[in-house]
Batch of 3 targets.
Target 1
Amino acid sequence: MLPTLNLTGDVILAEHLSHRFGKIGLGDVVLVRSPRDPKRMVTKRILGLEGDRLTFSADPLVGDSSVSVVIPKGHVWIQGDNLYASTDSRHFGPIPYSLIEGKALLRVWPPEYFGSLR
Amino acid sequence: MRTRVLSFLNQWRGTAKEAFENVSIVAKFLCLLHVTDRYIISSTHVQGPSMLPTLNLTGDVILAEHLSHRFGKIGLGDVVLVRSPRDPNRMVTKRVLGLEGDRLTFSADPLVGDSSVSVVIPKGHVWIQGDNLYASTDSRHFGPIPYSLIEGKALLRVWPPEYFGSLR
């Protein structure tokens, strides 16, 4: 999630109310249970909601092959800000909305980066 | 005047204490009930044709436990309560017919022809299917679902009473 979140680790405050009321929107940084490993939580950004059509580069390092996808009902598209080092919906497809467990509010540590995530 | 107010309050002190104690017992009970219902065992009303003949069309009440899926103890053939991947506000009841790594071959449309589809279930996913193949929307339609969508495992049916017992 570089450059939004630091490589060496940040502490963020996340709230667990928005996803229960359906108030997760485009661009939100969310805490999500990994579809590949039920014991792991990952932090990604929402870049697509159900019904959206997304076009992305299958491999950002190699060529320009584009893939176009329509996000099915009840699913969202998550992507890390660091396209070159992120395993996200470009690899495992759109994830069911219910896997979202929290929305990041602000960063509290380290102190020099205190504040909202932009 | 002041002493009258004070003696009035003193009279009610004993009652207030008793009321508070009783309320706190009720509050503790409700907390215990909530924790049990959410994280240990709960009763659910399930209805629909997708699990015939195992579950009735008109609706059954089953006891479901919420511990197994946290410990990874969901196995093949278990009837599970799952959050629908198509509608986050809906719970569905299906049977687990495949675990991660399994290869499944199924008929794309059981009413039409013999077209077979073969699928390998990716890591962290399971394959759910209703017992009634002709009236069930399940993994044959929306693919394998992430394991984390499983919220409970059905234990036994408690209503209607003539069908009391385990689901087989």
Note: The interface with chain B takes residues 22, 33-38, 72-75, 92, 95-99 of chain A (CB under 8 Å).
Target 2
Amino acid sequence: MSKQLDMFKTNLEEFASKHKQEIRKNPEFRVQFQDMCATIGVDPLASGKGFWSEMLGVGDFYYELGVQIIEVCLALKHRNGGLITLEELHQQVLKGRGKFAQDVSQDDLLRAIKKLKVLGNGFGIIPVGGTYLIQSVPAELNMDHTVVLQLAEKKGYVTVSEIRSSLKWETERAKQVLEHLLKEGMAWLDTQAAGEPQYWLPALFTELYSQDITPEEAKEAIP
Amino acid sequence: HRSVLWGSGVKFDSGVLLLSTHRLIWRDQKNHECCIAIPLSQIVFIEEQAAGIGKSAKIVVHLHPASSNKEPGPFQSSKYSYIKLSFKEHGQIEFYRRLSEEMTQRRWENMPAGQTIQVNKDPQAGRIRAVGIVGIERKLEEKRKETDKNISEAFEDLSKLMEKAKEMVELSKSIANKIKEKQGDITEDETIRFKSYLLSMGIANPVTRETYGSGTHYHMQLAKQLAGILQTPLEERGGIMSLTEVYCLVNRARGLELLSPEDLVNACKMLESLKLPLRLRIFDSGVMVIELQSHNEEEMVASALETVSEKGSLTADEFAKLVGMSVLLAKERLLLAEKMGHLCRDDSVEGLRFYPNLFLTQS
């Protein structure tokens, strides 16, 4: 096999010499590349010592992105309890990278996050609406929690009545889920709302999106 | 009535544009003696620019570079290779249509030039070749085409590469099966070598994982390196760090040739067996940490109990601030203390608060 391996390495080197830039600069090409690797059963991001990483430089791109994602999530955790939309994460990561850095797409973020899971930090990807919520704390979020998050995504908040009517749950079940989210800091309770109390998800507050990470928050990110 | 904009920044305003089978002619409305013409054969392509707020509709005419026998015109040369025809009132759509037709039919190629319209021979008149702007536009167009070509070439090359990679995957599967069958006959060395091949290719190795773990020589080396790198940071942080913290610390320090999360985990799994002064520990929550061998989390629990007792009760946040730990690890310590029976919890919507377990101490 080592002969085959050497031959493959040569092929890859040739490919890299011609198209390494393409991978760096073109997010669509990266998607194609990743999808094709997955189809044949190869994980180009498994190891920094892999050929893919060494010769195409894909590894460094995603591993560094991983560090940046971790930093943003840590800095903002106290605001949102460890839940953040992919959009906000994308924005904040781009801000942190500065204007001369390579372009990074949402697909890139998702792939980097999938790799981070193995560190046992609770990173998870929750589909909501047309997008995703990224979890970055080891909090237990089961199907019930996920479904309520999805329900809350439309308006940024949810009430017990809405859960009862949309999901056909008993009040007790709805309350349990909402309390869990409150305890985890992922939801805030507004008891002064007209009608019944509203459970807001800071991760979904669009007003918070453009708010930069403060120096105090940044310190949290690098313990 | 239209005006013609020259790319060199000079504008010829208020004129009439005429189209013949051979030429594009512009005549100044006021000064009929000023007349400029371009042969249609000089045109590379034309494009429309729609009107906008404050902007009139335009046609951009991209031109070939001027030939050396160019007749005198308003400019001898220009750094631009296009001209813009600006339609202040109306007529852009119709003119574009007609000009496109003439460009398609190329009737000037079939008919002799014939009698050229008499143009004034003063310096303002004559055939004009605008150059310069077209060069820039054309370069952009070429770049676009080349980028497209590059992309399709890249995709082609990518497909071919993936074919070869697929062969490697198949080969590795058959070798893995052989190893499975011949369990005893394969040396540990050969197995380790095979695993490093899989590592290089990025192929998961389900067969050999059970027997020797996912580690390779590379991970062994890495584990030893980590032991060196992490000694001081661990001491500075009370002997314990989450794996996520380690990942960031190590990769920030490296700058290049970063570790993948899997590399880190696989290396850390070997710490204990290599008898290094650090170890990997996994809490019930799934949180993974690196501890100094000398670190004893259970002892730390005793001091945590003291701290909590002094304050009556503490949340993970409060405890973290007091002790100078990350919230993640503070919570794990309190949870461990609870597991050992020293603390109990008050889990309300205001947060998770820990109290000394009076059931234990006061029974």
Note: Chain A has a mean pLDDT of 89.
Target 3
Amino acid sequence: MSGWERVRTSSSSSSRSPHGMGSNAFRELPNRIPSSRTIQLGRVQPQAPGHRTVFCNDRDANLPVRFKGNSISTTKYNVFTFLPKALFEQFRRVANLYFLTISILSTTPISPVSPITNVAPLSLVLLISLMKEAFEDSKRFQNDLAVNNNLIDVLQDQKWVSMPWKRVQVGDVIRVKQDGFFPADLLCLASTNPDGVCYIETSNLDGETNLKIRKALEKTWDYLTPEKASEFKGEVQCEQPNNSLYTFTGNLIFQKQTLPLSPNQLLLRGCSLRNTEYVVGVVIFTGQETKVMMNTMNVPSKRSTLERKLDKLILALFATLFVMCLLGAIGSGIFVSNKYFYLRPNAGDEGSGQFNPGNRLLVITLTMFTLITLYSSIIPISLYVSIEMIKFIQCTQFINKDLRMYHSETNTPALARTSNLNEELGQVEYIFSDKTGTLTRNLMEFFKCSIGGEIYGNGITEIERGLAERNGIKIQENRSANVVQEKGFNFDDARLMRGAWRNEPNPDSCKEFFRCLAICHTVLPEGDESPEKIRYQAASPDEAALVIAAKNFGFFFYRRTPTSIYVRESHVEKMGKIQDVSYEILNVLEFNSTRKRQSVVCRHPDGRLVLYCKGADSVIYERLADGYNDIKKVTRNHLERFGSSGLRTLCLAYKELPPDLYESWNEKFIHAKSSLRDREKKLDEVAELVENGLVLIGCTAIEDKLQEGVPTTIETLQRAGIKIWVLTGDKVETAINIAYACNLINNEMKQFVISSETDVIREAEERGDQVEIAHVIKEEVKRELKNCLEEAQSCLSSLSGPKLALVIDGKCLMYALDPSLRVMLLNLSLNCHAVVCCRVSPLQKAQVTSLVKKGARKITLSIGDGANDVSMIQAAHVGVGISGLEGMQAVMASDFAIAQFRYLADLLLVHGRWSYLRICKVVTYFFYKNLTFTLIQFWFTFQTGFSGQRFYDDWFQSLYNVIFTALPVIMVGLFDKDVSASLSVKYPELYMEGIRNVFFKWRVVAIWAFFSVYQSLILYYFVSTASLTAKNSAGLTFGVWDVSTLAFTCVVITVNLRFLMICNSITKWHIISVGGSILSWFIFAFIYCAIIGKGNTYFVIYDLMSTIYFYLSIIFVPVVALFGDFVYQGIQRWFFPYDYQIVQETHRHEVEGTSRARLLEIENQLTPAEARSYAISQLPREISKHTGFAFDSPGYESFFASQLGVYAPQKAWDVARRASAKTKPKVHRKNDS
Amino acid sequence: MPPETSTSSAGGKEGSSGPSSKKNSKKPKYSKFSQQELPAWKPILTPGWVISIFAFTGIIFIPIGLASLYASEKVVELPFQYDQKCIPSEYSNNAEAYIKSTTTNKTCTATFKVEKTMKSPIYVYYQLTNYFQNHRRYVKSKSEDQLRQKSAEEDTDDCKPEARTPDGQPIVPCGLIAWSLFNDTYKIKVKGKHLKISKKNIAWQSDQTKKFGSDVYPKNFQAGGLIGGAKLNESIPLSGQEDLIVWMRTAALSTFRKLYGKIETDLEANEELSLVIENNYNTYSFGGKKTLVLSTATWIGGKNDFLGLAYIFIGGLSLFFAVCFLLMYLFKPRPLGDPSYLSWNRNPGMIK
């Protein structure tokens, strides 16, 4: 799939979706106008009421409008707004808001606790959150600062003056040099290239690395030098800033003429200039108003499923809190009585209202509020901030720095772009993968060919090798020593190389074959005209590969002019002689997806007229001349062989045209070309007239290589219970091919294919009635779905039925996604082991993703590398971008970026699984420790006459969460490992625990809650009961604060020890944090009890520690409290072991460090071999009868289609003419070589 | 290989990918932390561990329990509940009226026998039940500052309703706790001779020295219409009023014991003790019991069988569980780390 197509499809898809980015009036307009029309060119575009007028080169004139400056700010806050805004953000969290309310409540007399109890933790939490925000924002600020201070040449007083970006203003004329970035959205005035053309790279914008062409208006070409440019006075009227990257409407009013502007003249900020010495442009949009900045806003933030479930848990806690308060309040209503004279219940002072038996309703109400403040610790306030910290470290330290996910070839480490979704990675059940660039390398290589019924090319594809080895044949691969190694060319056969083809049985066929490759294309040569240095700009890598192949066979295409193609041929007749031949190109019959072929009519130097044609086998075979049946048959066989080897094929044919026949045809062609209505259709019809009676030359086979380790990874992920769907723009056959190659589908599976390429549908399409077509397709799809579903169910009901796979194409998918059929589609696809969707648009990719996400409520992950995957990446729970060759667009939209598909295994099975496990533990442990702590308080309430007396000292309670139990839980969030990384990958099935959400089910929470109740009962009742008769050896008895301090000590110890029981691995940090927490409590108590002389707790800890009873208790109580948990864990592990526990046991004697280091090495060195062996094991058993047709990307039609925007009239031909103009001055160098 | 990459050589061969890439390499530096390879102890709760831990707990706990129990058994404790006994029979249905009346004679006598020899010091406690000293309104009804220093005499905000006299004079000590000071008194006679019940050192030192000021004297105390309990000698500073200090260390539960005094002479077994109780304190309105307790103390403190018994019980339970687990493992063995127990091996159909 070519990069061009991506932009086009993504732009069209977003305009189709109502919620797509900014569907404004300007965007709607171009879509309604047939793109083939050129008449709009001269028309003045209607101006929206809010257009902007920019006076070029005239700062004073622009002054009244007050355009925004060019400095950008990506920061969320500034110095003044930081506090209010950041605080507001914080209080949008329910827990924080709750604690704010409680803090306010606790300043009133109904509160049993002093405000410090709630204010201290809240402020600490807020402080940490604010510090984090400030830190992140300052980093952004520094980035902005660096960007804003980049230097750029601005025209001032006939000179280029270097000034920082931020001082560029709208209307300024500036100069951007080669490889420089555009500081703002510019209107291109002039370029050093002839014809005002410049080349830009948009990889920052949309990830495309192919160069794009922008062209200045002819009237402004001259304004290149500062002297000249300073004379430029014009007025630009254009649309208001918007976020649509591919549209632009405006006029340049210049020398009393109104010239329409199009996206073709617009140079967007973020792009960079290539192959052009410099350009001069006028600033149109600046800073925040540039299109790229308008696009970066409002990135939808995702929350993990676990976090949403956490919200439910918090809600449950609120409910528990309410019930507890209600119980206590009712109790207090019953308790209050005049008989407790010492409480003076009706003394009439302001505090007595709550205890006055005369008004029990008031008592209950007030006690309710009292208890809410008292039990507030049940809501773990520091939970969110702890989780945030943990996830942040997980991202920055673990995921970003994992050496196993570092790709050394492209120098790309993994990148977690959000820290919200770590644990979501551990629960993914569906992966939606793009094909090209994700599963495959998008690196087309000419691999084999068949000429005149003879196969050339000794290479063996992975699929072939696997097939052979499965059949027990050992393939010896003996590559010739002198193989030409070049990007795009991986061909090894001495029979064709270095002119050796002359000795082949049919050298003439070979010659035509090579000529066809060298002539029949729309590739632009670039750079030096020598075979080593030339670069080809092609619409698709397939095309480039073919031209490169021709070059290597001795037919070096080096120059294109509007009328000719120059080929340097090593000629047959004159051995070894190199000859530059120019072919006059008379007509180009372009590729499009209905024609599936491309033809060129050229005149040979000897005057012959030849039509060269290449295209899909199906369309070429239909148009072959009669006869030559042997060759047709043999070539057909070859095509099938190539196809089943996973290669993309094209048929090549030619035809000699008698001059008179050509002339009459050419008239029709010119007529069709100049027609204004249905031009495309007429052109197709005319092409049909000449493209027949062709002579088959042969076929080519191009390999689209799989990324390293893809089959292994897919196999591993499937074992992990993850279902992988491939969503691709490719044709059905190609997609199935790749699915076979990468292990997704094999012949043991039952395949359901729902394709729109059936006779019924085709017939309907030929009749051409849109309504009828829609109806027919829908009925067909419905029927197919129903059949498949029935079959699927019968397959599933039998125990050992085959696995199922579904292949569906985009057109059918469109109807299958219809609300009436959606349920059926979902039922079918969820039962399938693998699903392949072909020919889908980016929008459909997103629709399929959300179908599963919303319809099946499963956790989805999308992975892709290009702009066409953005919508899918954003739609899924987790979006992963491949940051490889293709640029940044997908990465920008993604949550995680990795360099290779195979790293997905590490990302999910290691990081995702661990993160999930850790976060689950953190959450449940938080839940447990706060519940236990609060329940003790609750039990105490029963024994204080439901008065809401606090059990713990204010400071003890407020520091419980933030100091005495804070650190260990962070440790488990960072360090807990059930099994090592290597075992995680070795036993991918362990991942299913995450998919089933084993560790954060209500059942798990309930078990924790049960033990929480048990522990709190033990802790409270043991400590309080035993204290009744507890005395020191001097006979002194304990007061309430002695008992509570003792209980608090026991809670801190118990909770910290319980923490150790949840750890699978205990590092020194665990020990330090647990020991430190307990120690910190004692140290705090020692200091606190000694300093606060007047408090209730003065000297309490020392008094306590002077008794034997204290020591007996702190040994006994934690042991008894943890007794239950221990028994439970013992029984659970023995009788109902989790999978990870079995794995732990199996590998209990292994030292992890060494095994992992070894694995790391293997990972880096042996992966291709491993991948191969997996490919072998998963090959289809019978040769599938399909051929892979190479040029099947829908975007192939027009070379510069993506950038045409409104005006879209240019054909490859125009481009070729323009590009060739540039080479004119170099004509003399003809015979250099 | 350059030194900085050699440290990361454990990460594979990439470390030596050449000097050109080294300059701009984004390759993460190897550290045990970021590669999550920190050395760790991975305990597995194998049957062996479970059994040993239970056995160990049992072996440790039972001796501790026995020792505690022994110490507790050595404590001689003589409880004497008098709340009903000290109500004259004519008031038995109307105890509240009796106790509230200012005219009735509250003195009450009783005798009981010392069952075992009690070595001095013998502690005299009073025990109240159903008395909510931990009630929120009660607990906070005192002024710590006022108790501590004379200058904070006016600081009575927390003490309502016992903060000030009707004419606005601050009450010292203010608040409900002080106001409801326990006022039963005990006298004990052995063979007709009064035993001295010492009131010295019956409070925690920390309370006495830091929480109750030596320059704070009672003032306006129990001067209002409602009398809650005992009156204080206004010539003794609060730090010397040990009864008050004991009372004001509020109890944790509604049943509590407080030290009344100490007897510094031994009591022989079978000696007859005769008690003279001034039964002044009203617990009758809320049905609270009053008990006088004579007790000795050992290293463990007072009589506290609960602790020893609990230790023994848990120790026993641990041993029991150790045996249980042992039997379970014997009768339902599971080979450690047997892959056939893995869920996907147990029911292979699970993965579709």
Note: Residues 670 and 1012 of chain A are 86 Å apart (CA to CA).
